[in-house]
Request: fold
Amino acid sequence: MNQRILIVEDEPAIADAVIYALRTENFEWEHKLLGHAGLSALKAGHFDLVVLDVGLPDINGFDLCRELRTFSQVPVIFLTARDGEIDRIVGLEIGADDYVTKPFSPRELVARIRSILRRASPTEPGVGSNPAGMPFLIDVPGQRIHFYGVPLELTRYEYLMLKVLAEEPARVFSRIQLMQRVWAAPDHSLERTVDTHIKTLRAKLRAVRPEKDPIRTHRGLGYSIER
Ligand code: CA
Reply:
C-alpha cells in the first residue's frame, strides 16, 4: 500500500508543487488549506506523515502540532518561511521531526519524507552490529537506534545526538561539540536545546529500562554515554 501524506498549506502554488513531487514518487496525498481542516483529517483517517506550513491563516502551525501530539505521534515536517521560526522548530518544544525553509525544492522535501518514513518503519531485528557489547545498536542505513533491542522512536535531532554519544562511549562531549556535530549551522543561543534533547532522550531510554540511565551529565563539561 502506498504511504499517505497530509499537506496542510494555504498557498496553492506551494501545495501544488509538493503534490506533484509526491505523485511522481507514488505517494498518496490529501491537501488541506486550513489548519483546522488538517486536524479533522488527522482525527478521521490514517496518515504516515504530515507536511505542515507554520504560517496558516486560521491556526499557527506550532499550535496545530502541539494539539496533534495530544492524540498522534505521526511524523511532522514543517514548512517555514522565516529564520525566527527555525529556532523554535530546532528547539523541538513542539515535537517536529524536520523542517524545510521556503523556497525549497519539492524533490528535496520528498527525500526528507522518505528518510523519516524509513526511520519510522520497523526494521528487521538484529540489524547492524552492537559495538563492544553496548546496550545501543545503531542502524545507520535505517537511521534508527535500538536500546536493549527496543527500537527508539526518536526525532531527527535526538537520533543524531544519541548516535554521536553512543559511537564514542565514555567520551565527554561539551554542549558546543554536540551542537557542532548535530546541527549544520550551530548557534550558541541553541545551547540550551541540547539540554532539552538530552532530557527527552533520557525519558525515552527510561521507558525501555527504568533502572538504567546511561547518559551521564558532567557538570560544566557536557554529556557522555556510560562505557
Ligand atoms: Ca502560509
Summary: The pocket of calcium ion is lined by residues 10-11, 53, 55-56 (CB under 6 Å). The chain is about 40% helix and 20% strand. Residues 131-225 form a domain with the Arc Repressor Mutant, subunit A fold (CATH 1.10.10.10).
